[in-house]
Amino acid sequence: MTIKSTTESGQFHSVWQESVPEIAWHTLLLALGIGVGYFLTIDSAVNGSLPYPVATLICAYLTFASFSVLHDAGHGSIFKVNSPLKPLESLIGWVASLPFIIVPYRFFQKIHDRHHAFTNDPDRDPDHYTFGESWGGLVLNSLYIPVQYQVLALTKLRNVKIFRNTYPSSAAYFLLTFSTLIILSVQGYGLEVLCFAIIPLVIAVFFLAMVFDYIPHHPHKSRDRYHDTRAYPSKILNWVILGQNYHLIHHMYPRVPWFKYQEVFYKVLPDLEANNAPIENIGGGVRPGFMKSPNVSNLLDEGNSINMVLDVSDIKQVASDAVSIEFELPHGETLKYQAGQYITVSKWLEGEQQTRCYSICTSPRNGKLKVGVRKTQNGLVSGFLNNDLGVGDKLIVQGPFGDFAYSSEDSGDIDRLVLIAGGSGITPILSIVETALADDSEFPIDLIYACRSRESIMFFDALDKLKKQNPTRLNLRYVVEQDSINPLDVHGRLDEVTLKKLVPELEKNNKTSLLKNAKFFMCGPEGLKNSMLEVLNKNNVGEAQVNVEEFVSTLTKPIGEQYKVDVLLAGGQTHTLEVASNQTVLEVAKAQRVQLPHACGSGTCGSCKFKVNQGETASIPNSIPGITEEEKNSGLTLACQCKPLQNISISEA
Fold it and tell me: Which pTM value belongs to this model?
């Protein structure tokens, strides 16, 4: 699978703006038709000219269609920005939400942004399926989704400001919808409430969940923009299910109204095909059949990258306080990585998405994806992974990352490999030593592993096996800080004296350069790495010979001057941030735990719009779908893309 770069695809990403009309007349006509349809259907049924069961089915489709109006209003797709009719959009959204009884428009708008931001995330996607793949499970999932919205509002999301702000309007909405239904029922219209409101809602919600959630995103694995949603072209379905067979287009360009999906699909089709987007045929053809495209769950870039939800396939205890975790990769695929690299693992814990870096502990040659995790004191994620994670659980995995990598292609230039590990730093070192031992080269390998005690040694059995299989080539020595009964262990801490004892050539390297073709890899606590670097530098080991593991911070390191950014939120709250021109306002705000309205963080959903009141910011590329050129020209920006070029002032749009 070959993924094109953003630059190569950029020519297509601005095309969608050409398909955003000044006024979405089709959506307005649909809204009018739904209103007329409800009136004629209910009036005909009550007057006896239309059987109640038929009226129920018609009302079910009208409820289904009403969602497209609600959906377009929620994405701001009915009227363009700065239109004098823009306030009418919210009114249309509120009216379109009435048939759904428990889905208030303003709350839906925010919760749906969350679906776009975290598509297929089992913990954060409010539309994620959790009850299994049986038909019974699908029905339960579909009917539960609107209820799940309210559960999320009162639990996981209750402390998120943008959701708390919707509580008053939601309360008024619930009062209106429930009191209306109760009054009608008390006055003798209970059967009509059941046939024209409740049953149609149940039917519509099931089909909406199927065409908006289950079918487009199944099997709910990929989190890549081109692969997390499918399309199945059909001119007939385009009108029957109101464009949702092109749901991929909606996720790529959320501002496009429903009746333009098909048009945009064919405009950007070359880009979709070049990036192997999951496009399927319903009635046969050269493309995969309906729901059969492997591209919704494949690895990316021909197996060189991963960004998806993976099931845990195996968990093993590898020390008294550490486990190895193996992931189930898509059938028939292996992740291509270099020995020593790491992946990130993400899980929602204690009200926040937690992401940690864990080194891959297996050789790229064995086709498995496995990490080692030591439980640290007060470690939220490591504690969960060691104590609570089970086989079959799902985690978000991204990678591989890192320059701490051993390549078999470079083995011909090495005459000795010295690996130094401390504590859980053995994890990437294990991958390196397995890979190096499998090479055709015969250079000796020294593995020095510093640990607190014998019980704290991770992967002892795996290391012991490697030593027995390679008794002459692998020199494995443990430096144990606490007492040990093994006579081969070196007692104490790993320092200059100990290192020279284990690698005697260091003592003479200053004069003879015995280690000029040796490669050193080090991973462990910061103090150990720094002290070992000092020893190697002191003994004439060049920087180019030494590779030290350094995990990358999630916050971009500021370069150059930092500018003052004054942020005014809708409720009157103000914040002042220091942001460099290579950082975004949102990433700095998150690092300082300042809550700004946002969802995806990548410029797709457009929910972090701010007005630039003063100062200059870097231009946002046309490839970002969350903001139109017209909005940018009117002074709007996205916090997740906003990079200041001087002191700026922004306010919530």
Answer: 0.84
